[in-house]
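retry 2 of 3: previous attempt timed out while embedding nicotinamide-adenine-dinucleotide. Reduced batch size to 1 and resubmitted. Inputs unchanged:
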Amino acid sequence: MSQISKTDWEARYEQLQIEGRCFINGQYREAQQQQTFDCISPIDQRLLARVASCDQEDAELAVSNARQTFVSGVWSRLAPVRRKAVLLRFAELITEHGEELALLETLDMGKPIGDSLAVDVPATECAIRWSAEAIDKIYDEVAATGHDELGLVTREPVGVVAAIVPWNFPMMMACWKLGPALASGNSVILKPSEKSPLTAIRLAALALEAGLPAGVLNVLPGYGHAVGKALALHMDVDTLVFTGSSRIAKQLMIYAGESNMKRVWLEAGGKSPNIVFADAPDLGEAARTAAAAIAFNQGEVCTAGSRLLVEASIKDLFVEKVANALQEHWQPGHPLDPQTRVGALVDQGQTDTVLGYIRAGQEEGARLVVGGRRVRQESGGFFVEPTLFDDVTNEMRIAREEIFGPVLSVISFEGFEEAIAIANDTIYGLAAAVWTRDLSKAHLASKALRAGSVWVNQYDSGDMTAPFGGFKQSGNGRDKSLHAFDKYTELKATWIKL
Ligand code: NAD
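retry 2 succeeded.
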């Protein structure tokens, strides 16, 4: 937990010089049409910065610079060990500027400062460092050819990568892409969300300071339908990597098909089941974790455990424990207070969406147990109480649709088969969890669950060592681990006659 007090953070907020320009070819500059959009803090609706609103012209300029830089070889042909050195320095600079980045993230996106410091900054640094450390340890292959031939199977950087990312973990999502993309030798254009662009803009200068050549990393803030679409339709972008909603992910596949068949890798939404069997080893721990799984980051988490499936024999007892945990530990507070565990929702639109789902739950007959209200309205910020619904069926909208807010639906089940059937009855397949003391049941559930990550007797564990991504409409491809490098490299076979 940070030792910096709320008063100190507020003082730093007043002093903060916020950069809102885009970053192309190693320089900050205005968008070519001089357009900006207001970047408003969800904590109090104060104007943080006027941010460059990039469009097609800026995309053209950034892609052409990225292409020239890539072809020049100044980064793409650098020995991996030298790329590693630059990226390790970049990682160090992220840590050195950790408090500044954490403050920017909290002001821009509304999450608690304690989380920005303890989760977002270290995970961002780790994504860059881990990828840097890996890149001079990944070997190519020699094919199993006959005596008179040599077959080399090599990986090459794809070229120009566009990375379009969401607002819920802005710099962490960006660096899950930037780490392997840059380490592999590509030139990258990063498009942060219009709802939280500030840390991405700041990271560009830190990368340059670390020694990344100009043009290798460009950052284009702006709207999805403008600069995002321009990048996705661009004929000279080789690969598009995306984290965001399944709706936009599908649109990006269409754009790729309409343009140059660029490779498209998608990390999309979720509606993850958290399954608690009656033989869970510790119901108290399971309940506290279920509360955290929906309240952490205001529920604005792709893997949020938003469907809590509880075995009927323990359901009432368990719901009471989750309700107590939410009320005791997860009430919204000021995001700059180091004690706060639930901050502000990202903006008015997201607040309206969340409150709309709460109304829908009540109208469809679910029982509101705790929460349900907007609070702290006098602050001008967007705060909603973590909300628990019991007596939910998997057909209700609150169980089927991704809310992306702190709204938890409890669905009861009888036995293993019904639990798995309900869990898999969703268009999504990002993550799932199972609580049981029966090892065989845990393994059988893990095999049966159609999800990219399965947790047993815990929720939301993970680090850079394992791939992260989804089945079904939660996406394709994987962030993190050595598997992530597949997205940023092309495989080449070279046949040599001896
Ligand atoms: P979103 O899909 O609305 O936007 C994501 C990004 O796409 C933004 O930068 C946006 O500007 C851009 N965009 C929007 N329209 C576009 C278009 N027509 N062309 C090109 N780009 C466009 O998602 P969001 O609201 O920013 O983020 C929330 C979503 O992200 C949730 O569904 C959440 O589950 C998902 N998410 C997934 C993961 C994961 O790893 N699977 C992680 C975090 C968030």
